[in-house]
Amino acid sequence: MKILVCISHVPDTTSKITFTNDNTTFNTAGVQFIINPYDEIALSKAVDLAADGASSITVITVGDASTEATLRKALAIGADSAVRVDAQPLDAWFVANQIAAYARANSFDLILTGRESIDYNGGQVAGMLGELLGLPSVSIAKSLSVENGQARVEREIEGGKEIITASLPLVAGTAEGVAEPKIANMRGIMSARTKPLEVIAPIAVEPLTKIEVYDTPPARGNVKLIDENNIDELVHLLHTEAKVI
Ligand SMILES: Cc1cc2nc3c(=O)[nH]c(=O)nc-3n(C[C@H](O)[C@H](O)[C@H](O)COP(=O)(O)OP(=O)(O)OC[C@H]3O[C@@H](n4cnc5c(N)ncnc54)[C@H](O)[C@@H]3O)c2cc1C
């Protein structure tokens, strides 16, 4: 089975997020980047599926050269080869079209994405890929198995589970539960240095959206301590200051 795993290079969750150029550009200075955690789950699932020895895993990212460290980590975890589409990921439509073009030219049996990126949180790429490639696409997969060219996906729905079967090729957006995230071992880290990392030119695609401005939540005010016996003041403040009742 040929598996393609889409990897988004995202700020570490502990990063302090700031913006420059009148709040129109995310300031990457001093920010540590990691593999999007949901993509790590997708990759870990791919490694489990490839344990049959008859499968190959390619990871792909759309991004500039700074994303290569993230791709090397994916190679260390277990991917066989990596592809970087050399372009700024302008929006989900742009990203999905770049990945679709590569996937079309290299025909994969299974394309895995994360359920969403933890930076822009669009949750759009998997659906767009399915549409662009004319393939079934399942989002927020909580469990995934493949047997005889048939995939079985469990999704969590309000009050229960939904079980879906689909023939390969398939696009699936994976969530927590699909696989235990794998940690690269020393052998993986060493072998990642020599695994192929191909850089390809982007295709011409106009993004459909443009970010006008970013805004951060207002800074938190000081904590106000109220005497535990002074319920009237608490209610008054919740009503007039916090405006939650
Ligand atoms: C430097 C930079 C500049 C950006 N500028 C803009 C901008 O001007 N306007 C704008 O709208 N967005 C911008 N983005 C956001 C970027 O385009 C997002 O990566 C893209 O919109 C997809 O994010 P999403 O939240 O919609 O992805 P989701 O749909 O939430 O992602 C789902 C899955 O798709 C895959 N995926 C997502 N992104 C990538 C990727 N880049 N490569 C490979 N797989 C991926 C991953 O598997 C991910 O788990 C920028 C990002 C960066 C890093």
Any overview of this molecule?
This protein is of the alpha/beta class and 245 residues long. It is 26% helix and 29% strand. It has 6 helices and 13 strands. The strands form 3 sheets. Strands 11-10-9-12-8-1-6-7-13 form a 9-stranded mixed sheet, with helices on both faces. It has a two-stranded antiparallel ribbon with strand order 2-5. A two-stranded antiparallel sheet has the order 3-4. Helix 2 (68-77) links the parallel strand 6 and strand 7 (81-86). Helix 2 (68-77) packs across helix 5 (186-192). The mean pLDDT is 95. The structure holds flavin-adenine dinucleotide. Flavin-adenine dinucleotide is lined by residues 6-8, 36, 38-39, 60-63, 88-92, 95, 113-114, 116-117, 120-126, 209-211.
Count of beta strands: 13
* Secondary-structure element string: EEEEEHEHEHEHEEEEHEH
Helix content: 25-40%
Multimeric organization: single chain
Mean pLDDT: 95
* CATH architecture name: 3-Layer(aba) Sandwich
Strand order of the largest sheet: 11-10-9-12-8-1-6-7-13
Intertermini distance: 57 Å
Short summary of the structure?
This protein has 6 helices and 13 strands. It is of the alpha/beta class and 245 residues long. The protein has a single domain, classed as Rossmann fold, CATH 3.40.50.
Quick tags:
Rossmann fold; two-stranded antiparallel ribbon; about 240 residues; 13 strands; alpha/beta
Topology diagram in text:
Layout (H helix, E strand, L loop, with lengths): L1 E5 L2 E3 L7 E2 L4 E2 L6 E3 L1 H13 L6 E8 L4 H10 L3 E6 L5 H15 L3 E5 L10 H9 L3 E11 L2 E8 L2 E8 L2 E5 L11 H7 L4 E4 L30 H10 L5
Parallel strand pairs: 1-6, 1-8, 6-7, 7-13, 8-12, 9-12
Antiparallel strand pairs: 2-5, 3-4, 9-10, 10-11
Helix pairs in contact: 2-5, 3-4
Bound molecules: flavin-adenine dinucleotide.
The site of flavin-adenine dinucleotide has 30 residues, from helix 1, strand 6, helix 3, strand 8 and helix 4.
